[in-house]
Amino acid sequence: MGEEQVQPVLHALDVAKTQWYHFTAIVVAGMGFFTDAYDLFCISLVTKLLGRIYYRVDGSPAPGTLPPHVSASVNGVAFVGTLSGQLFFGWLGDKLGRKRVYGITLMLMVLCSVASALSFSHTPTSVMATLCFFRFWLGFGIGGDYPLSATIMSEYANKKTRGAFIAAVFAMQGFGIMTGGLVAILVSASFKAAFPAPPYADDPVASTPPQADFVWRIILMLGALPAALTYYWRTKMPETARYTALVANNAKQAAADMSKVLQVEMAAEDNEARSSSRGGFGLFSGEFARRHGLHLLGTSATWFLLDIAFYSQNLFQKDIFSAVGWIPKAATMSALEELFRIARAQTLIALCGTVPGYWFTVALIDVVGRFKIQAVGFFMMTVFMLGLAVPYQHWTAPGNHVGFVVLYALTFFFANFGPNSTTFIVPAEIFPARLRATEYLRGTTSTIKIGHAEKQCKVILVMCTQVKLKALCAGDDAPGAWEYAGREKLKRDII
Fold first, then answer.
1. R_g (Cα) of the chain, nearest Å
2. Which NCBIfam families is this protein grouped with (predicted)?
3. Dihedral of CA 244/245/248/250: which sign?
4. CB neighbours of 201 closer than 8 A, spacing ≥ 6?
């Protein structure tokens, strides 16, 4: 009886024509991902500036840099929060419904973006500690937005274009990364014009004007704007019909909710549609393991492996660009000039590689298929990364950085026209509706962030001893202030 009431609702959703509300849902859900990417990756743009402002050492031949433990914390703490947020909000979304939780995650992101920018104190350590505290909670909100956005879009979409719709939501991440770079370019250029400063080699103190402290705060704070603008529309979205019908067991309410936003005819005769025994297996049951155990293993393993490389490259682009000579030595630039050049380089990579890759996936995923896109993406990433790593000394020679940048951009193109998109889409489609948000996070992003956070801390420590990890995370040849003071001791400790 229950299935007879639920099936008409599900069938109507599966065969519904693409309508205006589908695009509204893409924008509303996608702006969450826009904000996620902006907030997660804008920190990599300003870490060198933070080092110059708060960790300058008198007499050092190079500008100040964040100590390795501080750099690891500032860059990685948001990902620890993301893991925690996924575990909590994914579970909560399956218990209380997507709609109730969806607005909470966005508001948390807004508040913590602003609070991160207001990290004031009397000592550098206190400023960094406050920044890390609020970035943890920012990551906590981002972690909740991740599984819920994918799940909501998959449950609104029809069967024919579901992959493209979920991919379009995820593609907003590319615009978030690119916008972070553009904002950094505009803010740094404006302050650079208003407050000219000499290179560090000419005047170490004057090379970082006092007004530079406002620059990184403005960049972080602006991450709250897109999330705040879409908060109202999130609260107006009805609960997804699939959740209401399959989890809340109310087929009539599901039909009524979807009839308000989609031009579909759905009928349900009773307020309650009892769940069938067929779908009643638990999360940790043998039946779940039999049906979805391999799905869980496959989604988690592929996403884990992909994001170790993908997130590390995104966060350490500035160091890679310096290593191959695309960005000049830090001592030859002022603080704002260095930020401007880093932002310009990362924006170019996003424009030429990252963003097009996402939208190729949107256009072709329902034509080519998930498996082919993922397999080709992994293969091409491997080819291009080997092409960067094996002849690494060639790429670091003067005049060869253009070829390096082209291959580097192609790795991002095939990451996004490949596994970075497909590993996001598949978990939202294959798990049962009542466990979808929980299993989405269990099967994918939980393991990613653990692997990424571990990888990040190790990579930063190795980078800070100037060990060249070919193409992935080569360090700057110019030693920073903390290296100047204790590099040899750190090398001995790590060895």
1. 24
2. 2A0109
3. positive
4. 331, 332
pLDDT digits (tens, 9 = 90+) for 329-345: 999 999 999 999 999 99
pLDDT of the residue at 187: 98
What is the average pLDDT across 255-284? 57
Euclidean distance between CA atoms 307 and 135, whole angstroms: 20
Cα–Cα distance measured from residue 324 to residue 315, given in angstroms and rounded to the nearest whole number: 16
Q: Chain-wide mean pLDDT for the chain? A: 80
Return d(Cα 120, Cα 116) in angstroms, integer. 9
Would you say residue 275 has pLDDT above 80? no
The angle at the Cα of 68, spanning 63 to 70, to the nearest 5 degrees, equals 90
Closest CA to 47 of 316, 310, 333, 347: 316
Residue from 182, 39, 50 nearest 111 by CA: 39
Q: How far, in whole angstroms, is CA 356 from its chain's centroid? A: 17
CA 204/CA 51 separation, integer angstroms: 13
CA distance 120 to 64: 19
Look at the chain and count its residues: 495
| Architecture label for domain 17-272+289-494 | Up-down Bundle (1.20)
